């Protein structure tokens, strides 16, 4: 279900060279920046081939930690001069993963693209509890997405669009200790440029060391009463 569509008028048509537009309208969760949350963003890409070149690390991490990774497994892509991930030989196949040391409650993905659009029916969300032979699940196809900005434009390869799209998931109802999440999607065709991406994660609150000590004392007291 598309929650909202915002079409901007008066923008100049984009010519054959793909411009770096970033997000025009990003779906920012109200809890971004709160305790027990993490935010990762990609404004410029370095790896066009996830098999040969590995992942794209978020640009807002001073030292890439591996807590968030973005891969393209589609063939025939390149990194444009603007830093965009551009597909000229085949569709993009984008995998965006987030990892946590505690249960993931909510996740929001944002993508800004230019040219050919995402095949929205190809999108799937995968999750796992991170344990060997543990619980995992897949939601596919993901029907609930939001087109936050849409503007048709001529990119010199036929009409395309500047699109800002987001997916938002409430995972708190899943009876599992989710430690890994990933959104996977394909583009409809080639001539698509991935301009920007972001991912917000919200985790279950972890008791502070003092609270853990109190819980331990409460447990001891309970056992002492039962012995009495």
3D architecture notes:
There is one protein chain. The chain is mainly beta. The chain has one domain (about 35-225). It has one helix at about 210-225, and strands at about 35-40, 70, 75-80, 85, 95-100, 105-115, 120-130, 135-140, 145-155, 160-170, 180-185, 190-205. The strands form 2 sheets. Strands 1, 3, 4, 6, 9, 10 and 12 form a 7-stranded antiparallel sheet that branches. About 30% of the residues are buried.
The dominant shape is globular
The overall strand count is 12
Largest sheet: 7 strands, antiparallel
Please, how many helices? 1
- Percent of residues in helical segments? under 10%
Beta content comes to 35-45%
| Structural class by sheet pairing and helices | mainly beta
- Integer-rounded radius of gyration: 21 Å
Distance between the termini: 59 Å
Low-confidence stretches: 1-20, 214-228
**Average predicted confidence as pLDDT:** 84
SSE topology string: EEEEEEEEEEEEH
